[in-house]
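Sample pair:
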Amino acid sequence: MVRDSTAPASNATELTRELLRSRIRVHPATGCWQYTGARDAHGYGRVFVASKEIKAQRVYFEVFVGPLPKGARLKHFLKAEKCIGSACCNPAHLNVEQSLTEIRFARRICPKGHLIDGNNAVVENRGNNLLVRCRACRQAEWRASKRQKSQADRRSKSASTG
């Protein structure tokens, strides 16, 4: 059973459908369920469950639809004029993506100016999350870390022989 850890441990509140419904505002024009609680920097609702912070859309999906398969991701599939996006936690506005082949890379620019698309993207598995990074920057970071390690090894060898 899912519990909300924002309540005291001795009187933990179960995340029931009624409690979750009380934390949303329904937009009549789009049918979006706007989460009214805390949000992260990207606008996604955040719920604390068992001392762990989870996206509201994931909690709402699991309570109203059912459990997600391991490694699955939720993605909004409606266009901006039909859905409010990251603040929406309506399960009807979400698609389940289960494999890396289903991930669609948004065309965006990394902080160093590289275009991140299907050809220049690295997908890293970070626990239950997948992180999409710029391949060119990731390779440069890897080379720099190898170079630093090699230089440190040479310094320690020369110090031990000298």
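The chain has three helices and twelve strands.
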